[in-house]
Amino acid sequence: MIFPIPYLVEVAILEICACICAAPSATETNRKYSIFVAITTFFVFFAFRGFIFSDWIIYYQYFYHCEWSDIFKYKIGSVVSFEPGFTILNLLCKNIANNYFFFQAVICFINLILLLNFFKQRTNNIPLGLTLYFVFGGVEISTNLLRNSISIMLFLNALPYLKNRKIIPYFSLCLLGASFHSSALIYLPLYFFFHKKLNKWIFLVVVIICNLIFLLKISVVLSVVNIIGLDQQFAEKLKAYTELFNKATPLSIGYIERLFTSILVFTYYKKIQSEEFTKDGAIIINAFLAYLIAFFFFSEFDTLSKRIGMLFIFSYWIIWKSLMDCFNNLNNRELFKAFVYFYCLIKIWSMTQLPSMEYDNILFGHKSYQERLMIFNRTFKEP
Prior knowledge:
19 helices; mainly alpha
């Protein structure tokens, strides 16, 4: 399969830049150059991409057909209208340049600025942060989740206000994010407890319960639906909207990865949670636990678990970076770093196998909307 090659090349470039940035012998000029190369290639890869993955089918049509009156037509849960903030951004970009790829590049630029600001507060190795972002959810966030992406990035920049107990700027950024995707409303109640340090053993108990629910295929969502007495029609719609859990493989690479990460977090819990070692360590661990709960408690519905999990996937980007520094023995630390870099390549290769993921870039020629739509239909709609 040739589809993963461009993704592998980009990850390899980011990893090389990360190695240069981390090298003790690297000069300040070398570090700055590696950061510049990483950011530039990252931006070009996402900002000027063609029609890859799937959500462009909806967003492309919406860009050319949205009107100012659509701002007032949005209803939460609607699949035919979008949040007012997203609609306004569409219209502003359309007035500047009536080109969908320009709109796509603007969103990428906004997200990259917000993402870099998030990483700059937590690491001096920006290429490593971009590598972990790219591999752990970033490709889907940047290509498929145009609305979610902005709301997630705004939340990441609201974390200092959560930590410092500044409710007005925190709520303001979260509500701004909700104007792009209503899922950001989930972030609002987090203000009241997400900053608190969680006991190591409570973390372990929750992780064990999550794994038991997943492995024993306990139907949490439908059980709750039946308990609170929602009608059968709603339950059937819920089933139709999502993919049933029994299609999942318990011992998949994704499951093993989450289990492995959980074990390492528990092993180095105090280090990762400490503010001296990981900025906002308590928040990051709580976010990682929320990520696990989203995937395992809602695992019977694949789409639902992934979409909620994406709201907290940022914990991976920081936790894996922290884990790379946890080992006291230098050889063990370097061995784990090598493992992480190798695993990133394997993971991105396994994620980009479908024809709909074939990479295009408008700077070097790309397939048209109709051509990519035919490929998408052949991939997903033909028996």
